[in-house]
Amino acid sequence: MLKVDNINVYYDKIHAIKDVSFEVNAGEVVALIGANGAGKTTTLHTITGLIRPESGSISYTPEDGGILDLARVAPHKMVARGLAHVPEGRRIFLQMTVLENLEMGAFCKGKPAKEDLENVFGRFPRLEERKKQVAGTLSGGEQQMLAMGRALMSHPRLLMLDEPSMGLSPILVEQIFDIIAELHKSGTTILLVEQNAEMALQIADRAYVLESGRVVMEGSGAELAASEEIRKAYLGG
Amino acid sequence: MALFLLYPINITLRRGTRWKRGKRGAGSVRGFAPYAESGGGAPGQPEAKLEVVSLSLVNNLINGVSLGSVYAIIALGYTMVYGIAKMLNFAHGDVIMVGAYICFFICSDFGMSPILGILAAVLVCTLLGVLIEQLAYKPLRQVTSLAVLITAIGVSYFLQNAAQLMWTSNPRIFPAIFGSGGIQLIGDLTIPYKTLVTIGACLVIMAGLILFTGKTRTGKAMRACSEDKDAAQLMGINVNRTISITFAIGSALAAVAGVLLCSAYPKLIPTTGSMPGIKAFTAAVFGGIGSIPGAFLGGILLGVIEIFSSAYLSTELANAIVFLVLIVILLVKPTGLLGKKVSEKV
User: Fold this and answer.
1) Does a structural domain hold residue A115?
2) Which residue has the higher pLDDT, B17 or B191?
3) DSSP character at residue A19
4) In total, how many domains does chain B have?
């Protein structure tokens, strides 16, 4: 579904992403793990066009077939092609209400469909209780739910989640990962960026380890979780 | 410094002759054409004196609200552009001037109806606003805000000089497009039509903007862009288009403000828009920049403070007092009267 091929990304003179390649097949959960500054978020931003690669290609197979080079698609047109990106730090619209945030998630569809709203409220009942509330008054966990709910409003084929567990209590982290597993079960393809390697590897079909802008390891979630190196570096021994 | 030393003496002098000042002030505030005529009342008799003082007070209040409405309409344009594009469009005041000239030419030179004049002004200013944004500001989207600010000042001078070149600096006298009559309220208190139109237009525009940003899809997209452009883009919102729409709305409002301003103060020259532009910017900051009700409140308050200062304290110092109030407000409440401080949860 998504094939990232040898991309290189620079921030001015800093070479942030070096020849990174990976792929995400339809129906998979793929995790990108790695420490702070390894280039995980930059990789996601490059896929959704917030940053452009200097070289390499990002090919995506949209619903209607064919191959789309995402490096040439305007960022605001990605979501209509089925890519939804839940950015790091949630980036919900804090001064807008919960409902308005969800409406923005369905922006490319025009008016949000009733069943989509019901679907999101079904997954996150908390959001329905607070739909008239300004998003800035939500707790961190609720904000993460809103960010995910907002992305789901566009019916994504590929959902990209950037650090969904960041800043959440262990119970909430469990809850968020349960929801990710449910989404996976219902057929959504997921690209997950996480520092919490333990949780990410449990859920991932396959994973890539990024280190200073390079892919240094790849394998199935279980393989990597069992690997000595990974245990030492990311899973606390 | 010397001015400020003299200042208290000035006040006492004015206070001593208050009712006379009041009456004169209502007739010719700051040497501009009057908004409302205050009536006679025989001086010398105590009851009549009291009546004149309160009448002039009401008149000054109406004048203040009316001038404030013009500031508010301009400030709404400032605040919307700031809210979404995060830049101070210092050329906004000069778009006002262009709007006033267009309306002047349509109504005076071609003798067409004022409605046509206003529509033409709105149309030309909307296009001008979008053009300025596309040519001058859009290429600078990724650079420091200081560069954009300097560009905006450059555009402001460009418009003033272009106007001087095309239309010369000879003052034009703006026609009384709203007629010279008014509605008589009680006794001698008459509110001119232009004042009513100005205040009404301001209320309608503010209500319209609140509805637009609160209820429509495009309006909500604007608020999303004002909070977080990258996140808005991820939602599928075309940020560039949204910014252009904002400039179009702001410039259309500037055209309306230009017509209303020149109906009240008919002397039209290429720098007509610059002082009201700066004052309206002050009003927007005063009310909390980025906030629509804030721009409205700031504009009205600024107008009232200005008219009252020049009527009761000092015509010469009216502007200084206006800015003094701004400084005091910002010292007490740095985000402005209705400005919000947003704290982010991590």
Assistant:
1) no
2) B191
3) E
4) 1
What's the number of domains chain A is made of?
A: 1
pLDDT at B11 > cutoff 50: no
Q: Which of A69, A56, A54 is nearest to A16 (CA)?
A: A54
Query: What does B2-60 look like in DSSP terms, one character per residue?
Result: HHHHHHHHHHHHHHHTHHHHHHHHHHSGGGSPPSS------TTSHHHHHHHHHHHHHHH
In tens, the pLDDT along A150-169 reads 999 999 999 999 999 988 88
* CATH code of the domain containing B318: 1.10.3470
Sort out which chain B residues have CB atoms less than 8 A from A107's CB and list them.
Answer: 217, 221, 235-237
Range of the domain at B111: 47-332
Q: What ipTM does this complex have?
A: 0.91
What integer pLDDT is reported at residue B219 of this predicted model?
95
Alpha-carbon gap, residue B252 to B250, rounded angstroms: 6
Q: Is A96 on the interface with B (CB under 8 A)?
A: yes
Residue A209 lies in a domain: yes
pTM of the full predicted structure?
A: 0.85
Taking CB atoms and an 8 Å limit, are A93 and B224 in contact across chains? yes
Which residue reads 């197979």 in tokens? A61
Structural domain boundaries, residue A70 = 2-82+156-234
Per the domain annotation, does A145 fall within a domain?
Answer: no
With respect to residue B303, please indicate whether it lies within any of the assigned structural domains.
Answer: yes
The residue ranges of DSSP E strands in A25-126, in sequence order, are 29-33, 55-60, 68-69, 83-86
Mutate which: B220, B222, B234, vs A, most A CBs within 10 A: B234
pLDDT average, residue stretch B116-120: 96
Please count the residue pairs, one from chain A and one from chain B, whose beta carbons lie less than 8 angstroms apart: 82
* Whether A48 and B234 lie within 8 Å, measured CB to CB: yes
CB pair distance less than 8 Å for A100 and B342: no
Is residue B17 assigned to a domain? no
Task: Please indicate whether, in this complex, the C-beta atoms of A50 and B345 are within 8 angstroms of each other.
Answer: no
Instruction: Inform me whether the C-beta atom of residue A26 falls under 8 Å from chain B C-beta atoms.
Output: no
CA nearest A24: which of A56, A43, A1, A45? A1
Q: Do B343 and A136 touch (CB under 8 A)?
A: yes
pLDDT band at B50 (very low <50, low <70, confident <90, very high): low
Please report, for the domain that includes residue A222, its CATH number.
Answer: 3.40.50.300
A138 interaction partners in chain B (CB closer than 8 Å): 345
Residue B262 maps to a domain: yes
Answer yes or no: is A121 within a domain: no
Q: CB-based contact (8 Å) between A143 and chain B?
A: yes
